[in-house]
Design goal:
The complex is a heterodimer. Chain A is of the alpha/beta class. Chain A has six helices and eight strands, in the order βαββαβααβαβαββ. Chain A has a single domain, classed as Rossmann fold (3-Layer(aba) Sandwich). In chain A, strands 1, 2, 3, 4, 5, 6 and 8 form a seven-stranded mixed β-sheet that branches. In chain A, β2 and β3 form a beta hairpin. The longest helix of chain A has 31 residues. By secondary structure, chain B is α/β, with parallel strands linked by helices. Chain B has three domains: 141 residues, FAD/NAD(P)-binding domain; 151 residues, 2-Layer Sandwich (Guanine Nucleotide Dissociation Inhibitor, domain 2); 100 residues, Orthogonal Bundle (Guanine Nucleotide Dissociation Inhibitor, domain 1), CATH 1.10.405.10. In chain B, strands 1, 2, 10, 11, 12, 13 and 19 form a seven-stranded mixed β-sheet that branches. A seven-stranded mixed β-sheet of chain B has the order 8-7-15-16-17-14-18. A three-stranded antiparallel β-sheet of chain B has the order 5-9-6. In chain B, α1 runs parallel beside α9 and α1 crosses α13. Classes of the chains: A alpha/beta, B alpha/beta. At the A-B interface, α2, α6 and β7 of A face α3, β6, α9, β10 and α14 of B. β7 of chain A pairs antiparallel with β6 of chain B. Chain A: Intracellular vesicle trafficking and protein transport. Binds GTP and GDP and possesses intrinsic GTPase activity.
Chain lengths: 214, 444
Amino acid sequence: MSDDDERGEEYLFKIVIIGDSAVGKSNLLTRYARNEFNPNSKATIGVEFQTQSMLIDGKEVKAQIWDTAGQERFRAVTSAYYRGAVGALVVYDITRSSTFENVGRWLDELNTHSDTTVAKMLIGNKCDLESIRAVSVEEGKSLAESEGLFFMETSALDSTNVKTAFEMVIREIYSNISRKQLNSDSYKEELTVNRVSLVKNENEGTKTFSCCSR
Amino acid sequence: MDEEYEVIVLGTGLKECILSGLLSVDGVKVLHMDRNDYYGGESTSLNLNQLWKKFRGEEKAPEHLGASRDYNVDMMPKFMMGNGKLVRTLIHTDVTKYLSFKAVDGSYVFVKGKVQKVPATPMEALKSSLMGIFEKRRAGKFFSFVQEYDEKDPKTHDGMDLTRVTTKELIAKYGLDGNTIDFIGHAVALHTNDQHLDQPAFDTVMRMKLYAESLARFQGTSPYIYPLYGLGELPQAFARLSAVYGGTYMLNKPECKVEFDEGGKVIGVTSEGETAKCKKIVCDPSYLPNKVRKIGRVARAIAIMSHPIPNTNDSHSVQVIIPQKQLARKSDMYVFCCSYSHNVAPKGKFIAFVSTDAETDNPQTELKPGTDLLGPVDEIFFDMYDRYEPVNEPELDNCFISTSYDATTHFETTVADVLNMYTLITGKQLDLSVDLSAASAAEE
């Protein structure tokens, strides 16, 4: 995984999804990665991360998107979860204002554990439930502006904006990394010395920015 | 929290997290709690502010040391044997996907007043400056015997039954001198004292083979590997495994009082006025202080430095073992170092540890032979902590208590305790041998 000079290089970005329980984090992820939606999904069990690819400037860019595995339920998300994340989606439920009020705590936790996040997006999910909306679009927008986040309302149920939101984050990471890369190669080189792989790496020759871009 | 679980795990140290992960994968309904607001218990890695709070009682560390979050200082410094039980457990559970590792640069031993590289193969023995010319040849022959030795092939046994012959007798056969016996026993076989000399040689030979095979595995300059961001990542990775398989996690739960019925069997855990019911408890010694006894004390020093340990070929990660005899002590002293190249400190900084089984009440004086090897330090902390082992009978109370982490330099005894507990809890053996092929397939 160290052959950075190979032609046809690929990019692999780690993106985390955070936010209160039952705001639809897992359903956003499965809608984006598999175009599925499960109305009965309870607390997250068995979801790891999903890898999705997209083409940018003719290059294959892969996003490895992590789900909290239910550890957010009692606020026990590991610091390791945030390690090396270059993108983050902070999700709230537009029908429950408590989930919106907690966005600040999630941002604090993200900033405490990661200084590598270059693209963050605030997502108001369940926008198909307009009739019981509790957080207005304006409130979402203004919080995003004051915290320097992208903002979008989505619906994992009817697919509104889901693909757009993820791809916007991935594009933003890509443009940031490509620029940053010009200056950081020597330090990164130093950090990858002696790296060992315990399992056969399927993505050989893939650039991982999850832990090298510090 | 007022639910019923099959197993409640208390404490998120490495042992508890591995067990939690294995049990959840088996389909057991697990609740995992910790009184701290962070993962890892005794085996956590602290950031700079946490470190200051623990040792200096102050919330904030001096600014010149850099950002607090750039530090991950291990509270239980150890390295992982490249071919050891922890690596096999990681591969068996596929937890490797949450972690990145680096080979450790150097493995050294302090003999005759000098820090010297540990030779572990016949080739290295011949190049080593640890021994004179004739001793090198004798040691080379001994290493060849060990390398060839195959339990199942009597032709490689050289006419000896290693389950009967003692280590002392085996070594006598090759005519090795005291210093060679010292570095082989302590820096290759990684014994913590000299008891092995009077015990059957089989264990020592297998330990030497583990060292040599681990060394060969990553073609590095030591048999060890180490996770980026520190050892505190390990419990968290197993906790994620448990959560992915349905384990419930709660941090920052004060008290965590274990409740028993009149027969003395565990029935649940109470915290903040709520009781979660369970059939079994798995925990570290601190959660059931009445069911453990003290078995020893560890003295340690933690140093922040701006340079690698002198005389270790500028290694960014290194282990130096000081065998007991070299210091006229009863137990070995261990020196570890890792650096910013493992993401455990900001650029240019190194973290060094010195630890030993305490023989006095004054860690600063006792650890001096080890801290003297470090050169100048930016900051240094000294402390001591007690070690415990369980004295209860799990079949009577359904409490499964881990033993405190010992002073060994790697995770072999840690995982052995976990596997033993797993068998006690489930009645099943965890077979890690099947993964050997997977492990060797990963050789590159």
